[in-house]
Design brief:
With 317 residues, the chain is an alpha+beta fold. The protein is built from seven helices and 19 strands. The chain folds into three domains: 108 residues, no CATH class; 122 residues, Jelly Rolls; 73 residues, 3-Layer(bab) Sandwich (Phage tail protein beta-alpha-beta fold). Helix 2 crosses helix 3 and helix 3 packs across helix 4.
């Protein structure tokens, strides 16, 4: 009985490692843990390789099942039907049953979501958490076997994480990982993949090549690795995109243009002598023409050059 339980435990661990590896979730620390587990016992490596082989072969095995017929030709003896069909069907059924540990959770508990230019979206997650996606954002979610994992590939997202101290919620980015158990925070990826993380509620742990620290409510870690405490106005400006607004107070003209350009997928150039000019006010994020017209009509001595529908420039009048 003990050996059977031990074997079942090894099989379960092997299936979980195979599933996690296929989902692309493994960090450097996870990979070290996997290698350590494989080296503990030859049975671990054998089970892991077996599950990997099953997952690789399943796509080919499923069509094969459709080709298996339980009806033999009349001239076949019963003694010959059993050796031909039963091993094939039994082996395939076993493969499909084991592969279900990998396939069903992958289809049911993972998804890829992306928004296009000038589009925002809200995604309800299986654990009761929620994420708001800004325009031009892409992420992958994995909630198999109790894990809570999100990979933010580009863009910006706001997370409202359901509390669960036994299952930390992880957001992986090209520039580092954010881990929490229950909180509200905003993550915006810089062009180089490093995340700007702003915490509104709870606590988060951030680990990347630039920093490893815990944030407190009201703090922000910039993409450059600078830690700062934000005012209520700064926090509102950071998350205003969720309401379809852009708050310009405290932004330079170059920063405001960059945010509009990122949301709409446009190219907006700002003359060097105007880039540091301080802005103010609030605009509808969806209304790029209105923002540009307001600049041209204001007393800022600016004019807008429209090269085409995708390319604009803000220059001195």
């Amino acid at each position: 009985m003990t050996n059977r339980i031990s074997t079942e435990h090894i099989d379960e661990q092997a299936a979980r490692w195979t599933s996690r590896l296929d989902g692309g979730e493994l960090s450097a620390a996870d990979r070290l843990a996997l290698h350590a587990w494989l080296d503990e016992d030859p049975a671990h490596r054998a089970a892991f390789e077996h599950y990997q082989m099953i997952c690789d072969d399943t796509a080919e095995a499923i069509p094969a099942l459709a080709q298996v017929s339980p009806v033999a030709r009349p001239d076949q003896a019963a003694a010959r039907r059993w050796p031909v069909w039963i091993p094939a069907v039994a082996g395939l059924a076993a493969a499909l049953a084991i592969a279900a540990v990998w396939i069903v959770p992958y289809i049911r508990d993972t998804q890829k979501v992306a928004t296009i230019a000038a589009q925002r979206s809200t995604l309800a997650l299986p654990d009761g958490s929620r994420t708001d996606l800004n325009a031009r954002t892409a992420l992958f979610t994995d909630f198999r076997h109790g894990r809570r994992f999100v990979r933010l590939e580009k863009g910006e997202a706001f997370f409202s994480v359901a509390k669960d101290t036994t299952h930390p919620f992880s957001v992986e980015t090209p520039g580092g990982t954010v881990r929490v158990t229950g909180t509200q925070f905003n993550v915006r990826l810089a062009p180089d993949g490093h995340p700007e993380v702003t915490l509104l509620e709870g606590s988060v742990e951030i680990q990347n090549s630039l920093a490893h620290l815990m944030l407190k409510p009201g703090q922000q870690l910039s993409a450059a690795g600078e830690l700062r405490t934000l005012s209520a106005r700064d926090l509102d400006r950071t998350t205003a995109w969720r309401e379809g607004r852009i708050v310009l107070n405290g932004l330079t003209l170059a920063e405001a243009a960059e945010q509009f350009a990122a949301f709409h997928g446009k190219r907006i150039e700002v003359a060097p002598e105007l880039a540091a000019r301080q802005m103010g006010g609030s605009y509808a994020l969806d209304d790029l023409p209105g923002f540009l017209d307001a600049l041209a009509a204001d007393t800022l001595a600016l004019r807008i050059v429209r090269y085409d529908e995708e390319h604009f420039a803000i220059v001195t009048r």
